[in-house]
Structure formats: structure tokens, C-alpha cells
Amino acid sequence: MIFSKLCLLASVFWVILLGLIHPIVAQNSIVSDTEVALIQTNRPQSSVVWHMSRNVPHVALTFDDGPDEIVTPKLLTVLREYNVKATFFLVGHMIAKAPHIVQQITQDGHQIANHTWAHYRLDEMTQDQVNLQISSTHRAVKDINQPIMPYVRPPGGRFNNYVIHATKRQNMTLVMWDVNAADYKTADGQLPDPKAIARRVIRKTRPGSIILMHNGPATVDALPQIITEIKNKSLSIGLLQW
To answer: Is 183 a catalytic residue?
Structure first.
């Protein structure tokens, strides 16, 4: 009898303990930029969107980390030449340094979206810090009287429940990607070959793809081939659409 009561008490103790631990684990669970990310939901009303409709022959080009006065204008020139619209996920403190470039982005018919204020890893921040990183960037765009879409992309693709809560609270959506151009510098500081960037993008792109690229010189060189070959696959290229 005593043994049975002890077993019952032990069971209750573990139920309570697991109930306390679970929220902590869930809060700190991290989704990172990975080629094997499992896409569980993908609706416009979802907290996180990885791609657009697979039933529409349309893909979206997105550029992270701008604006600057050297590379961003070159990207805009290529997009203008090929009559393609794109979405630019901009960093807040860089907006303040190059407001005229932001204005040019919108004048050319592209979308502006949120890539946080300082490009810090959001999964290492408190809830208040995450909120501020997002809201400050939105405010920077509004302060120069430019439109901004209700989209956020976390630096490095890293997010947890704090980030999801922040975007929900600010009526925004986390926009990720299903094609990573891998056009950023390698660990040894070298830029990848533009032809390799283009091959990677073309190989992985399919209807509904959201293509992640960056505000870098290798991307500028790869972009004409990417646009040409995507169009050759009978896919339209343009803005994010749901």
C-alpha cells in the first residue's frame, strides 16, 4: 500500500516537472537556416511562410542586408534592365544611412520589407529586444515616407517563439525561403563563383519558390543568368504574392 502511494506521488511529481520544463524548451527551440528545414505550414495566415503557391508558375526574388550606395544601385540596374520586380529586406540602421537608395527601390516598383535594425541573431535576444529590432526598422522606413510590407525575415533565418510572438503582435509575417542562393562570403572571406550561384538557384527553383539572395557583388554578377534561365523555365518572376 505504501509502495503504491509512493509510485503515485512519483508520477505526479514527474507530470508537474515536465509541465514546467516544456514551455522552457518550446520557448528556446530554434529554427535555423538549413537545406533540410521541414515545412509544416504554409498559408498566408501562417506565422511563418516558406514559399508561395505551388500551383502558380511564379517565383519571387528577395534580397537581404541592404541598402548601400554601391551594390544596391547595381542590383536595381539589372532588375530594371530585365523588367523584374523584387522584394528588398532592409536593415534599419542602413536605411538611415542611405534613404535615397530606399526611395529608388520603391520608385522602381519593388517592395521593401523588414530585416531588423542591426542584423543581430534574434534567437539570442529577449522578447523586448526582438520587438524593438523589428519596430525600429519599420519606423525608419516610415520616417522617410516610404511604404513597407508587413514581412520580417530574421537574420540567418534563425527564430524562436519570441520572434513569432513579436511578428504576431505587430501584425506581420515571417517570410523565409525555399531556395538559398548561398551567395555570401565563405569562411575564408572569399565570394562564391557567380556561375555556381546561378546553377544552384536554377536547379532548386520551382513554381512558388521564394529565392534568398544578398546585397553583394557576386549576386550582381549572377543575377542576369538567374533571371534569364528562370524565364526560360516558363516561370514569371516578381513580387511576393499569396
So the answer is: no
Q: Which residue of the set 51, 64, 65, 178 is catalytic?
A: 64
Element (H, E) at 77: helix 71-81
Which residues, 6 or more positions from 195, have their beta carbon under 8 angstroms from its beta carbon? Answer: 222, 225
Catalytic residue among 51, 110, 115, 214: 214
Is 51 in the active site?
no
Contact 89, 64 (CB under 8 A): yes
196, 199, 201, 203 alpha-carbon torsion, rounded to 10°:
-140
- Is the pTM value of this prediction over 0.85? no
Give the residue from 170, 102, 165 showing the smallest Cα distance to 135: 170
Q: What digits encode the pLDDT tens for the residues 215-242?
A: 999 999 999 999 999 999 999 999 999 8
Nearest alpha carbon to residue 112 among 120, 99, 102, 122: 102
Residue 24, H or E segment: helix 2-28
Q: 165-211: per-residue pLDDT in tens?
A: 999 999 999 999 999 999 988 888 888 999 999 999 999 999 999 99
